[in-house]
Amino acid sequence: MSYDAAIIGAGHNGLVAACYLARAGLKVVVVEKNDWIGGAAVSRELYPGFTYSNCSYVCSLFRPEIMRDLELPKHGLQVLPYEGGAVFTRDGGYLATFRDHEANRRELMRHSPRDAEAYDRYSRDVMRHCRFIRPLLLRTPPDPATFRPRDIAELAWLGRKVGEMSEGQICDMIRFWTMSISDFLDEYFESPVIKAYLAVSAIIGTALGPMSPGSAYVLLHHYMGDVDGNVGAWGFARGGMGAITQALTASLRAAGGEVRTGAGVEKVLVANGRATGLRLEGGEEIAARRVLSNMDVKRTFLKHVDTAELPPAFVKRVETFKSRGSSGKLNIALDAAPHFPALPDGAPMLKGDLHFTDSVERMERAYDDWKAGHFSRDPFQDTMIPTMIDPTMAPPGKHFMSCFIQYAPPKIEGRDWTDADRDAFGQTVIDQIAEYSPGFKDRILHMEVRTPRELEAEVGLTDGNIFQGELTFDQLLFNRPVPGYAQYKTPIRDLWLCGSSAHPGGGVMGAPGRNAASEILRDLRAKTEMRQAYAVV
Amino acid sequence: MPSYDTIIIGGGTNGLACAARLAKAGKRALVLEAAERAGGGATGAALAPDLAPMPLAHLLTTLDPRVLDGMELERHGLSYAATGLTTTALSPTGDHLVLEGPAGAGLSGTIDDAGRAAWEALRRRLMSFAEALAPFRAVTPPRIARKAGNDNLKLARIGLGLRRLGQDEFREFLRMALINIADVLEDEIADDRLRGLVAFDAVLGAWLGPRSPNSLILYLNRLAGEAAGTRAALALPRGGMGAVADAMARSAEAAGVTLRTGARVGRVLIEEDRACGVILADGEEIRAGLVVSAIGPKATFLDLVGARHLDTGFVRRATNIRARGGAAKLHLALKGAPDFRGADPATRLVIAPDIASVEEAFNATKYGEVPERPVMEIVLPKAHEREAGGGHVLSAIVQFAPHAPRAGLDEARRRMLANTLEVLETYAPGIGGLITHSELLMPQDIEARYGMAGGNWHHAELSVEQMLFLRPFAEVAQYATPVAGLWLAGAGSHPGGGVSGAAGWNAAERILSGVAA
User: Fold this and answer.
1) Mean pLDDT over residues B378-387, rounded?
2) Average pLDDT over residues A274-297
3) Long-range contacts: B53-57, Cβ < 8 Å, 24+?
4) Start and end of every Amine oxidase domain (chain A) (predicted)?
5) Nearest CB neighbour to A211, from listed B178, B366, B470
């Protein structure tokens, strides 16, 4: 049996690409090494009665265009916006955050009237940068090193977009892309806790600290999403993040596509410089006209393709592609809601993200530990209790808590993580929460601790990088993942990349999957038209 | 009383270069220098009466060739004690790595063939990028605004130069433009001494660590500089860096420039939104149709002009110019020649054993703390002199030092000196016993002595978001300011500081091009 397209990896991008191709009439199959679907957008029951969002934990970046095209709400996806959250300060106070701009502004006023003023200017400026970059997400980056009409036309389009702004706005944008979030926030704000709160989105998932140049761009990357048209807002997928991949699977099946789990790929079959199918771990071969890899670029080419088939310069760039993991995760089943004495009873803040890092300096020091090859002694955490909004994820009265932790290096002082390292890492996080929530430890029923090692082993993310490759300029846009191969094509004909290693990068966004599919369909149309042209001749 | 048509505020290298260029074009230029001697960072005080003065800058790395030739500096007394200076990457065990020729064209020391080949390949690539970027240093940065008076021909030529690298190298350039130096070194180079040295050179004078993105381009900027006519080379003037300052002052005066030292400008005189002279700190008023500020942009706008002459957005951008100095300057008088475990003293000695040492030294600075083990560049001027006699001195740029130390300036200076001497002792055992005088200038000391904001010798940090058309910020990137008749010409403008004169020369060219300010 032969397929038009075989897709490696049933993560969200693989499924998105599969859906678009299936809807275009191609016969597709998605193969997944795990016994479950979802990649890093997954919900699993690891403790009876509790649904964990094991990896990714909130939803915002997923492109609304894809949601519409693939009719995901019809297939069961529901996104529940959450209100805001709180940053706990070491002096026993807190900064609350709200989705509503005015409410947020009032709370900022409590900490610094000057910062509350600046917040309006800040929001306006950041949103302007967002508006520029959002349309680029669903476009294939142009290659500035060629003179192909398509690339020149795309560059010209970009030039026109830039030209719509004033000189001051263009310069502000270039500064914003290249500077550190710490420097950027210093230009607006004075309150350490406000700056700490706003710096969060600039470090999540990256191997950068808030004082690293380029971190402001990462903030933008996290601000590009929206929930129900509310730009920059975040929400929970009802039933955990796996609900997204479940809906995608349903949409794929409705379009006639297949998904096979427990089917790990051993090798991409290549003959005469073109991909012809897959060989699974058991030895079974699947013939396909084209292969899409939703694995990261390193895993794809260094583990599942014979490097003799690739140009040496390409192999070298893949080897040096940076995908250092920087984060870990604790998933906790709680007997009861945690109590935080700093917050008023029944505070709505518990329904959002909870942070315990009240200054940019503490975040940066946490990053210094990572650079030195340790997990942070005083880590940053983005902690959520989704069951506050979505009761389907835990038994009544009980809660599921997701703690996203930074920083955790891919290796500890150059050696692999051990179970003891992992446990010490988990303990550090628990201790930090317990400082602000006495009795917290007694409420823990079950806990899953994940370091970059576990992320790589289960999800397949090389070195545990959640974006399938760091988001620095040398690995963004036309440089992602390898200069000259940023348009989803690879040096092997009919082998395509559709994962987050490709433009525009990670997050549960779906854009790389959609873009890859549209490149394939474009390619297909071109070939078909050419054949027709020949037929006429 | 003589009358001038142009006043240049600040008699540092940029002020002098700008004045000389303007005078050659027929302007009657007056340079006002607050210190008792012109030359800015190329000048310094002596540690002891029988010792040579110790300038802030201790090596020539980026003297603009237009300034060297246009001011005929060699005719006015500049000569070299050493050109094509060698660098020694010091090892605490004496296993030094020696880099000869510009940017280490040749390596000697214990390094295998693969290591040599890797360095040659990386160096060749970076030098080709630097070569393509070098012409940028000598143009007025373009502005995006319409009718900006961009020099499109020159800019197109530079763009073409980059494109001529060929498709593969152009792609590499685009990939590496904003990369961090540490990743590049870890990918390409195996030798820790070499990694440490290049990491150190990339962030010398910057407020960045080698793991900070955008650090590679600072290394390219360094490679693009020239000394004594050779790209990426290092030179030591005979008589020290003060000789450059003196030659520039003599050349300027020979061109008709009037140089007044000990004349601190209090503010720029503005009438009907036009700069028409200056008022000195002692109240003296000097009028001229053109005022050029070669001091820092922040001080120029916020202190000399004043917020009331500028609009709010402009004041905010001027306030937001970042100028954090991260380098301290160490001067030691020594009873005898120090021995760096056999290293040739007539080379530039660098203590930066690996990337982590540079990064960790920067870590402390981020929080206003003093690093435990700073990294440094050492020059032993005495080793370059043929005549015997006189005492030994050691000059070192020590990184990183906090520009706003939390422990207070005196305490931080004390710790910085102690930590620096401790590192030195590891590399040159017994050096501590040779010291007769010592002086360590923290960034705040440098600011007080030289007037450089934050003690940063670029007046405004050299970083991608403050480079080219963003230097010091877009509206004033072309040397003209919103105040008619007032221009910028200092290190805070493109292409930045160092003993170079490029910014001053560029500003003079721009002024002479007839574009209105």
Assistant:
1) 87
2) 98
3) B53/B240, B53/B242, B54/B329, B54/B331, B54/B393, B54/B395, B54/B439, B55/B240, B55/B241, B55/B242, B55/B245, B56/B329, B56/B441, B56/B446, B56/B449, B56/B450, B56/B457, B57/B241, B57/B457, B57/B498, B57/B499
4) 14-438
5) B366
Confidence of residue A534 (pLDDT cuts 50, 70, 90): very low
Rounded CA-CA distance B64/A233 in Å is: 51
Report helix, strand and coil shares of chain B as percent, to nearest 5: 40, 20, 40
CA distance linking residue B295 with residue B263, whole number of Å:
13
Cis check: omega of the bond before A504, within 30 degrees of 0: yes
Arithmetic mean of pLDDT, B424-445: 97
**pLDDT tens-digit profile of A128-172?**
998 888 889 999 999 999 999 999 999 999 999 999 999 999 999
State ipTM: 0.96
Cite the residue boundaries of each domain of chain B with CATH code 3.30.70: 327-450
Q: What is the pairing mode between strands B80-82 and B236-237? A: antiparallel
A346 DSSP β-pair partners: none
In this structure, the number of other CB atoms found within 10 A of the CB of residue B4 comes to 19
**Cβ–Cβ of B214/A187 closer than 8 Å?**
no
Residue for token pair 């030359």: B39
Note whether B280 and B289 are within 8 A (CB).
no
Question: Tokens 């120029």 sit at which residue?
Answer: B300
For B114-161, the three-class secondary structure string (H helix, E strand, C coil) is: HHHHHHHHHHHHHHHHHHHHHHHHHCCCCCCCCCCCCCHHHHHHHHHH
Architecture of domain B4-43+55-81+235-322+455-512: 3-Layer(bba) Sandwich (3.50)
Greatest distance between any 2 Cα atoms in chain A: 81
Instruction: Quickly state the pLDDT bin for A531 (edges 50, 70, 90).
Output: low
Could you tell me which CATH number the domain at A2-40+62-77+238-321+467-524 has?
3.50.50.60
How many C-alpha atoms does A292 have within 13 Å on its Cβ side? 39
Where b means 16+ CB within 10 Å and e means fewer, A493-510 reads ebbbbbbbbbbbbbbbbb
Distance of alpha carbon A311 from alpha carbon A293, whole angstroms: 18
Count the residues in chain A. Answer: 537
- Complete edge-to-edge strand list for the sheet that includes strand A258-260: A258-260, A28-31, A5-8, A291-293, A495-497
Closest CA to A128 of A77, A175, A87, A169: A169
Q: Give the model's pLDDT for residue B49.
A: 85
Answer yes or no: do A473 and B143 touch at CB < 8 A.
no
Phi, psi of B270 (to 5 degrees): -125, 125
The residues on B that touch A, with CB distances below 8 Å, are 143-145, 167-168, 170-172, 174-180, 183, 187, 208, 211-214, 313, 316, 320, 322, 356, 359-360, 363, 366-367, 463-465, 469-470, 473-475
Contact status, residue A480 vs residue A502, Cβ threshold 8 Å: yes
Residues of chain B with CATH 3.50.50.60: 4-43+55-81+235-322+455-512
Contact B177 A473 (CB under 8 A): yes
Rounded distance, CA A368 to CA A441, Å?
Answer: 28
Tokens of A454: 């576990």
Element (H, E) at A368: helix A360-371
Beta strands in A376-486 (DSSP E): 380-384, 399-406, 444-450
Over residues B141-149, the mean pLDDT reads 82
pLDDT tens track for A196-215: 999 999 999 999 999 999 99
Which CATH class, in words, describes the domain spanning B327-450? alpha beta
Tokens of A110: 């409590």
The pLDDT value recorded for residue A536 is: 42
CA A284 from centroid of its chain's CA atoms: 32
What pLDDT, in 10s, does the model give residues B453-511?
999 999 999 999 999 999 999 999 999 999 999 999 999 999 999 999 999 999 999 99
